[in-house]
Amino acid sequence: LKVLEGVDEVVTAFLKLQDVDGVHHCAKIAWNAGLPLLQQEHRHLLKPCFAAVAKALEATSSPLGRLRTALHLEVAKAEADSESFTKAAKEVTLALALNYPPSAEAAVVWGFERSLDRFLQPLARAARLRGGGVALEADSGGDEESKAAVDDDAVVMLERARESKSPAIRGDYLQKAVDKLALLPAVPPPAALSAGATADTASAAARAEQLRAARSRAELWAEIVVMAWIPCELEGLVRTAAPHVLAADWQATGDKEMMLLQASACALVAFRTKQGDFEHG
């Protein structure tokens, strides 16, 4: 923390001197020093330094696009953690406006050409919904618009459940999220291409869109599982949501994160089952 506090002061001095190399050096030190603190419970400690460094990089029109994006992302997460959703949305907008080289691997694995967009897009959505006072009922528009509205409603319910300290209120919001998601058809991931096969541009775009939708839906169900169990141990909701996490057939070569998500859901259900056997045994 002392390193981060020192960087906060030094980067301001470098900025006044218009020393771009000094600002870049401070940014790299801040990021490396802050890596051990990139967890929700510690992120607020990083926010002042990361915000100062991000502003300095912006003021000098730094070409370090990916680093700048990562800094804005972490500041946005910190703002969202403190329920400052308008500020979080501003940081996400700044991050999404930056350019850095796309990744073909990221496009195949996550459906986003820029690797950090897989974190920024869901955060942008949550910040928009919470900061914009989105209505909680789906509009009666077209089919796709209606599905998107229902999906948005579920996100709002999850965010409200996350904030709730009361198990009863949290359970109520989670149940509402389950009810919303249950209205929507399942979104499976795209089937794996056969060995040596390649997709044309249109097909690749459609596969990426389907992959993003499948990951997003699975992650929502997984959030319900985790929030229902920790710390409230709402067994019924866990058992309701877990099958939706486990239903998709993810590929071991490219979807390791999603398979880990499934493994975590399995572990929670298995633990509760074993715990129940002990309680009744």
Question: How would you describe what is shown here?
Answer:
This protein is mostly helical and 281 residues long. Helix 1 runs antiparallel to helix 2, helix 4 packs parallel to helix 7 and helix 8 packs antiparallel against helix 9. The termini are far apart. The chain is built from twelve helices and no strands. The radius of gyration is 21 Å and the shape is globular. 72% of the residues lie in helices and 0% in strands.
Separate helix tally: 12
The N- and C-terminal alpha carbons lie at a distance of 50 Å
Helix/strand-derived category reads mainly alpha
Q: Which regions have little confidence, pLDDT < 50, spanning 5+ residues?
A: 132-141, 277-281
Q: What's the layout of helices and strands?
A:
Elements: H1 2-16, H2 20-34, H3 43-59, H4 65-81, H5 85-96, H6 104-110, H7 117-131, H8 143-163, H9 167-182, H10 201-229, H11 235-246, H12 256-280
Helix pairs in contact: 1-2, 1-3, 2-3, 3-4, 4-5, 4-7, 5-7, 6-10, 7-8, 8-9, 8-10, 9-10, 10-11, 10-12, 11-12
